[in-house]
Amino acid sequence: MQRTWAATTAMAIVLGAAGAAAAQSAAKPDAIGEIVVTAQKRSENIQKVPISIQAFTAKDIRALGIKSSSDLGQMSPNVDIALPAGAGNQPIIAIRGIGLNDYDTNNAGPNGVYVDEVYLSSPASQTFQTFDLQRVEVLKGPQGTLYGRNSSGGAINFISNKPTDYLTADVHAEYSSFNTFNFEGGVGGPIAPGLDGRFAFVKNNSEGYTTNALTGNKENGADNAAFRAMLQYKPSDKLTLLFNVHGGYVDNRPAEYRHIGDLSPVDGSQCSVAATYAGGCVDAFGYGTPSKFYGGSYNRQQHLKVNSLGSYLRADYSADSLTYTSITAVEHVDKIHPEDSDASPNQLLEIDFGVRSNTVTQEFQVHQTKDRYNWVLGAYYLKEDLRQNQPLYVALGSGGGYVAYDSSHQITDAYAIYGQGDYAITDKLKLTLGGRGTYEHKSFDYFGSFKTQDSEATGGFDPIQVVNDSSHHLDSSAFSWRAALNYSFTRDILTYVSASTGYKSGGFNGSFLGQDPTLIPAQLKPINPETVTAYEVGIKSSFFDRRLTLNVAGFYNDYKNMQVFLLVDEGGIGVNILTNAKAAHTEGFDIQALARPIDNLTLNAQIGLLNTRLDGAVNGQYVSNQLPLAPRTTAALGFDYKIPFGDNAVDLQFNASYKSHQYFDTTNDPYTTQAAYWLENVRVAYQFNDKHWEVAAFAHNLGDQHYYVDAFDLSFVGLIQGVRGTPRTVGVEANYHF
């Protein structure tokens, strides 16, 4: 019922907008503005790009309240971004059902995250503050023939504001619920002849929205900052050099989870799903479910600390019709996350997630654009050195507790040659062909040990026992390709059909293994590479003098050797398994509509319809299960209406997002699911006639919806761990642009 209602509502907005546009044809309202993207390594009108792509401009980012990379999951249909360790930590990105539900930092997912065309290899670096951005582009489907790194599910591109040869400045100040303060700014302009610069920064502070009954303090707050500095030098008309240095830190209490007891307080048996979520069950230590959704008792007081620093040098040289590009980048991330995993006042389950990653990438590209054809040829190299140190503390103080030490060192060397070209067979028909060759070598050193607490429960420990000390290697290679045809019926109607393949290399289980030395070698066996064959057909169209755009894409993805991450209970111990499913598939539609029926009114409706299924068994089970992070229906609806007041204006903005029922793991565990929900946001802005100043009031999650962005079944210690979404937030902001 909700799925039908969502789709019907969205299409009603689209059809209503179309009808209004027709009725107002005599008034000739302004056409919808053109959005220029660089998804295909050149500047193009988004309506002329024959792939499924969604773009957020700087205005959109501000109006929608997008503060971090993880916020995009609510605004992009058929895109889901989970936060397995809460805000400030790495995301799990699924696009059209394609993703890897692994919270470990040594396995990047199949969807690429890029900032200014630089790939962020470490998942720990992929959730970051969005500030001083020109736009964000969300690309759906394999992107390997145009991008340096494998992107078999899709890619998210963040494009920052660049230095200009004239003075420009942007300032944003915001205050909202929970004593939350956000301040960001950027300034750029000429420094010397041929030399321009830009500096931008952001600072966030918040007390938090969760009450810690144990201390009386607030949790789930923020204390982080980031900066970006760029210099652009043009020694000649042919050569442009762009140097970037950026960094940031996080230094606050980590996000606390919702503790949901899972055992009967009478006999210790597992409660039913209904009883578990009714709140009357307890964990293995007898601690129950807090009565307040945003409440709990948390004993750990250490801070989440993340420090990142990176830089890149880009050189573009033009010679005749050819452009040569070199991008050299380095990224460093150092993170320690002291997780209160049991979300309780006891030491039932706690983990210290430590990771340090150093990455160097080098990319070379050659471009050529002519009247009838264009092409890109590139070569790419990545070297990542990543170390994990993850001590696990279980049932300390119970007389049977233990500490498991889990550390690993992974080195990745990846090489690729790729290319793609377009050729206009006729003025209306264009052929696209692309290919990619990939080779990757990984080495993985693992060391596991543990010590048990003595039975007297005095706090003493028995001697450390080593369970595994081993080294492993893995080589992967593949050829992937893309072929497409697009046909322009008119200048405003483009149709296309494409087939492409995506590839993700194999990898190692970088998570917590068992304590039986005889089983660990099997758990360390590397997983096989996965491949995706993607088919897509779409139409991009504009009507009524470009006052209505309607884009529809249908897709089918054939998944082979899908990489799967599972948390299973083995004899009362939680063990993580990384394995392959022989086959899976995803299919569905992306529908985007944007209308301007009258001057100053813009309506939008975006719908994602998705069907996913596991076609091959995982550990002999779960055939026909729905894939994780793949709700069947997602939607984003909104309007923007500007009311002139003399030379000034009031801008009324409303948007709502919808996700239908979804699972958080491949097992379709009924204890870790999220029911369908809506989130609504509203913003009222007053814009001054000089176009420089704007003040606004806003409310996010207007209905104060209680929902989870991820959940884990920790029933082996008697609880469900829920990662809560943000409650209703209201605030005010001021913006200045010069």
UniProtKB/TrEMBL annotation:
Residues 46-155 form the TonB-dependent receptor plug domain. It holds the Pfam family TonB_dep_Rec_b-barrel. The keyword Membrane applies. Residues 294-702 form the TonB-dependent receptor-like beta-barrel domain. Residues 1-22 form the signal peptide. Its main location: membrane. It is a multi-pass membrane protein. GO terms for cellular component: cell outer membrane. PROSITE patterns: TONB_DEPENDENT_REC_3 (PS52016). It comes from the Bacteria. It is found in: Cell outer membrane. One of its GO terms (biological process) is iron ion transport. Keywords: Cell outer membrane, Ion transport, Iron, Iron transport, Membrane, Receptor, Signal, TonB box, Transmembrane, Transmembrane beta strand, Transport. PANTHER family: FERRICHROME IRON RECEPTOR-RELATED, TONB-DEPENDENT OUTER MEMBRANE RECEPTOR. Belongs to the TonB-dependent receptor family. This is TonB-dependent receptor. It comes from Phenylobacterium montanum. The lineage of its organism: Bacteria, Pseudomonadati, Pseudomonadota, Alphaproteobacteria, Caulobacterales.
